[in-house]
Inverse folding.
């Protein structure tokens, strides 16, 4: 029914990103609070808050994940990355209390993806973060499953609203299972429909071919 | 898998029909059928039974389990038991739909049967969801899917598999060193 004419690459979720996944590309632009640990000569023009020519040691700034990951090295400390709020002790307690009440889309929207990526920056809290991510997923699983399998033919925006991007993909999977079954039960499956591939295919104009 | 594919597989099941025409044995790749004699019951696959029925050349005898009393027993069992009870037929949902839609005049109490089968289906799906949830929350590594039918598995397959994949990846995060070796190559 809602099959697509191409196969989207799923996000990598774990510590490895999928190079071709759109979600992972968006994820790599998440900003992380970080602090420079050495002098960056002649890069002062990147930092608008000060007038100096260099970026001083100890400057606090927000770096996108892809840059922070590239600069971070265990031996030679170039930058240090702080944990975003949602992964710190305080929020972890909230998640362990009741993961279902949290609006992960507002907190994330790549809560699981970014959390796994944070494990690249050797923080002493890493095991706790990994544990919290897993427990949150497990805690919220039931709700994602029930809402995706019970909402037939209704507005799902309220259900999807608070889900993380990863959970939204799962939600859509559940919905497609439900929809195809209901469609079959109602006898809609016996009607022939145009394939999505043909539907999306537009005739190429003669001009395009000759150019 | 699409539900219509599951339905296609179900059409291989055998039902009894009473033809009102005569024909010699027919030889097909899947096996020999017939001979057909008016008034004598004969076993044929569902797809042929429905085809003959639509051309009004036969009467379909409902399968043994498609009976109000038997289905009521199954429903009670299903509600009482914690785990899945053996389904009346491995394709009970598909066969009910096919036979009731095309040959409801040959099946006594068709409406009651439809409701009963739907009840059984709903009970089983609720159980399936419950067990999927406990499967996830206890982080089990394997599950037995005894007594589940193909159609039931098919409704949650993609969702469950994707969730398990995600869970596996999140879990492998907890083992340090599983992904770090590669990550240092930047």
């Amino acid at each position: 029914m809602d099959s697509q004419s191409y196969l989207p690459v799923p996000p990598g979720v774990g510590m490895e990103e999928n190079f071709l996944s759109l979600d992972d590309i968006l994820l790599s632009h998440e900003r992380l609070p970080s602090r420079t640990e050495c002098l960056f000569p002649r890069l002062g023009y990147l930092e608008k808050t000060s007038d100096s020519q260099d970026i001083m040691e100890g400057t606090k700034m927000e770096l996108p994940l892809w840059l922070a990951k590239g600069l971070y090295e265990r031996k030679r400390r170039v930058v240090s990355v702080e944990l975003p709020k949602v992964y710190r002790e305080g929020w972890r307690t909230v998640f362990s209390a009741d993961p279902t009440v949290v609006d992960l889309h507002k907190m994330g929207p790549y809560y699981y993806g970014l959390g796994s990526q944070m494990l690249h920056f050797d923080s002493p809290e890493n095991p706790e973060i990994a544990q919290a991510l897993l427990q949150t997923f497990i805690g919220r699983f039931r709700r994602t499953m029930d809402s995706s399998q019970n909402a037939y033919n209704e507005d799902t925006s309220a259900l999807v609203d608070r889900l993380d991007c990863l959970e939204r993909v799962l939600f859509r999977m559940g919905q497609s299972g439900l929809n195809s079954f209901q469609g079959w039960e109602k006898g809609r499956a016996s009607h022939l429909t145009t394939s999505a591939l043909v539907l999306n295919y537009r005739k190429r104009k003669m001009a395009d071919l000759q150019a | 898998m699409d539900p219509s594919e599951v339905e296609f597989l179900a059409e291989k099941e055998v039902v009894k029909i009473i033809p009102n025409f005569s024909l010699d044995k027919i030889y097909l790749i899947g096996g020999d059928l017939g001979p057909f004699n008016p008034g004598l019951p004969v076993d044929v696959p569902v797809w042929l039974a429905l085809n003959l029925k639509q051309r009004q050349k036969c009467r379909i005898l409902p399968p043994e389990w498609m009976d109000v009393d038997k289905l009521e027993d199954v429903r009670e069992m299903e509600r009482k038991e914690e785990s899945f009870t053996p389904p009346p037929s491995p394709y009970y949902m598909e066969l009910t739909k096919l036979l009731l839609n095309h040959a409801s005049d040959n099946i006594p109490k068709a409406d009651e049967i439809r409701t009963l089968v739907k009840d059984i289906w709903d009970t089983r799906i609720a159980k399936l969801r419950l067990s999927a949830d406990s499967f996830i929350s206890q982080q089990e590594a394997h599950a037995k899917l005894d007594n589940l039918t193909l159609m039931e598995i098919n409704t949650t397959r993609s969702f469950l598999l994707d969730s398990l994949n995600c869970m596996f990846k999140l879990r492998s995060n907890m083992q340090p060193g599983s992904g770090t070796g590669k990550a240092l190559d930047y």
Q: What stands out?
A: The longest strand of chain A covers residues 31-36. Chain A has one domain: 22-189. Chain A touches chain B at residues 12-16, 69-70, 112, 116, 119-120, 126-127, 130-131, 133-134, 137-139, 141-142, 144-146, 148-149, 166, 169-170, 173-174, 176-178, 180-181, 183-185, 187, 189-190 (CB under 8 Å). The radius of gyration of chain A is 23 Å.
